[in-house]
Specification:
2 copies of one chain form a homodimer. By secondary structure, chain A is mainly α. Chain A contains 11 helices and no strands. In chain A, helix 5 runs parallel beside helix 8, helix 6 runs antiparallel to helix 8 and helix 8 crosses helix 9. The longest helix of chain A is centred in the middle third of the chain and has 30 residues. Chain A is globular, with a radius of gyration of 20 Å.
Chain lengths: 226, 226
């Protein structure tokens, strides 16, 4: 009888540890990534264990080795999945026939939504660069940092050419804007003191998008004449 | 003969591990804090060991227990020392007879200079809140988060009353401005790709202060009539 149960289920000490949002019909490698994303979103550090991931996904932790080599490989694959989604949206944005200011507005909303969906993003980037060795570090830079810098440069160049944005160093804007978008998720501990909520709600997220957009659009618009 | 050497020196495996910037004349507890600050500034995570701190300070690691109880106590004391300096400057700023916009400008420069001097600040806050238990968490909130929020509220209230700043939620500004100021130090790994330097130089710091100030002052100024 016990043999007919999947090995993964048999390993899980608590059946209720398996997430109901992880669809058992999708491919195992995707389920492992979904479980890791869920756990990282709940934790405040990159300290998920393979056994937690196995329990949450309802799969055997040996599959991590099979699909990703090791935990670092799994984390890098998760970041890659997020990066592809985010950078795909960024490419789409750059190709749109709208003003630079409008692109910036859409981008701010996109980046805050990405952190809302995957609040572990910057922590994961940080972890992979600091602990993951040269290869991870190089992969993360080419996945995230370089495309973002290129996009900021393109948007500012367009805005300056249109006369709508003031000339701004894209690299400095990259740091200040990403930092502004990320910090409310990174500094989750102060959300209770500052906003009276134990977590970022959809309503706070919307207010934050409006705030960061207002400050940055007003901050970067070329001053009107007269 | 060996007995005449200090215990600390005898323990240090490499004499050159002792920092030349740590003054042997100052009180031992301060030397331990200075050594910890130096090491945290060099590392990218909060992973300094008591033996490293002992080596760097030229003191016996048992003194950590004597002065601070344990490593968490030492880290909390270091944060307290930084907080007293920063919050003293903030009180002074609030009492100044200048416009709200001018206060904001001084504050942005002050906060970026604080991170430049102590790049570990936000990491340390994060670590103490996440790993330090309720007491540390409470201490950090009352040392940093609450005074900052109160200061932002006072500056915005003043600016709105003067008609110089637009009404802005101080809590949201706290997250976006602290995030903007901090991220270039937190995301040190992308400084090389973005700015072609392996670390934040005095010149980059000055450019960053000018950038964050320009974006935020323009972003928060009440629009001029006409």
């Amino acid at each position: 009888m016990a043999r007919s149960r999947s090995l993964a289920r048999a390993r899980g000490p608590r059946r209720e540890g398996v997430s109901r949002s992880i669809d058992p019909r999708v491919q195992s490698s995707e389920r492992l990534l979904d479980a890791t994303a869920e756990l990282l979103g709940e934790h405040s550090a990159i300290d998920v264990s393979l056994s937690e991931i196995a329990r949450r996904s309802g799969l055997n932790s040996a599959l991590v080795k099979y699909y990703f080599g090791n935990k670092e490989g799994l984390l890098l694959a998760l970041l890659k999945r997020d990066a592809e989604r985010a950078m795909g949206a960024l490419d789409h944005l750059l190709a749109m026939q709208v003003t630079a200011a409008h692109k910036l507005k859409i981008h701010i909303s996109g980046i805050i939504n990405a952190y809302f969906r995957s609040p572990y993003l910057n922590r994961l980037i940080h972890h992979l660069i600091e602990s993951g060795g040269q290869e991870s570090s190089r992969a993360v830079t080419s996945m995230f940092v370089e495309p973002m810098l290129a996009a900021y440069k393109a948007i500012i160049d367009q805005g300056v050419a249109e006369g709508s944005l003031r000339p701004t160093d894209p690299a400095l804007l990259y740091f200040s804007l990403v930092g502004a978008c990320d910090h409310i998720f990174h500094a989750a501990y102060s959300v209770r003191s500052a906003l009276g909520e134990t977590q970022i709600t959809e309503e706070i997220k919307q207010r934050y998008i409006a705030h960061v957009t207002e400050v940055h659009l007003n901050g970067l618009l070329a001053s009107r004449k007269g």
